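Cross-posting from the modeling subforum.

Setting up a comparison between two proteins and wanted a second pair of eyes on the formatting. Protein 1 (sequence, then structure tokens):
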Amino acid sequence: MLFLKMFFIILCIGTNSMIHTEKIKNLINIKEVNNIQLIGYGLVIGLNDTKNKISKFPLTTQKLYNMLSDLNINDKKFKNFQFKNITSVIVTGNLPYFSHIGDKIDVIISSIENLKNLKNGILLMTPLQGIDKKIYAIAQGRVIESCKNNFNIITKRYKKKYILQPNQMHSGAIIQKQYHLKTHINNIIHLQLRIKNIKIAKKISNIINSYYSGIAKTINNKTIKINFNKNNNLNNQILYNIQNMKIKIKNISNILKDQ
């Protein structure tokens, strides 16, 4: 009798361990919402044996002098110096639509001069702007040496592998401003599951409708349509709330593995 009780306890524990509570944002992509591309111009210093004299590159010279002036360093003697460990770079990155101020994003640094390897250099504070010319993030930090060593970011639920490219900085920029999408065509968006599963799609629809009555409809085993009323325009707050709603599902690893 005692053996049977222990068996059922172990069975229940094993069954419950397969059920996870996960936020909807980790299970879906939003078809109509794309990341915002960012770009900036900056300087990388502390390079090794570049044999690169600053006097050959007027853009680099001007950028450095402007930066020193902003720091209240206006000594004219600097104009006679020739620096060999500095280069001008273009910094690019993607701003996730649902990111928040203080979040960090990856950036890629590319020299606009004749340097291919920026290893161990330090990217100085570089504003990153969107197509609307507004600054959304600030990048700064050490450029990684190579892409040979991959590493895992471990969360409570799963592991996510990053394969870094040369001259890439993981979490190299901090978001300073959120991007706000004011309107959308027909006030309709589509949530797309990362794997096909009709049960999960219906479950997500039911959870959304429990908070916002009647706005979610399951189209198929991968797509959920969200229909906002005319008086309830698409906005960050509603989408943020939907993404942070929680759902209980089994075999979470199969859904998250494609991230």
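Protein 2 (same layout):
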Amino acid sequence: MFGFITKNTVRGGIILKNIVRSIFIVIILAGCKQTSSFHTNGQTEGIAIIDDQSYTMAIGDYEWRDHDLILRSLSGLDIYELSEAFDTLHVDKGATVNIQFDHSPSSIKIKQWNEDHSNKAVELYGDEWTLPVVEGHYIYEVIVEWNNGKATYAFDIHVN
């Protein structure tokens, strides 16, 4: 009796093996489904507020670290291509821009790109700055860093 393997014994072993495998897969998937402080698509939202209207900025490259998980996306787009993903805003001269993020950043750097492709750093006061008083088209590159990551955003405006 002990030396014989019957069809029922083999079939029972296969069933048990499949049950154990299924349980293992469920445990692995449940372990990978940790909640993150980043959106499920790996991006945190950046909002530009002008004249009490909110606009979601286009996101380019980003990186986020959460425990052992690293989410990274390199868009490969330059600032001009990235700004095309944003509908150009038409604003008045000297309007104020306020920017907000889902998570408080540790640093924010902003570059203003001009029509002649030159750029300059924008002085930020808290989360705000004032738009130019000279009519024209401008692209804003917003480089944000958090303790757990970084991201680049863009939006463009036409000052009337």
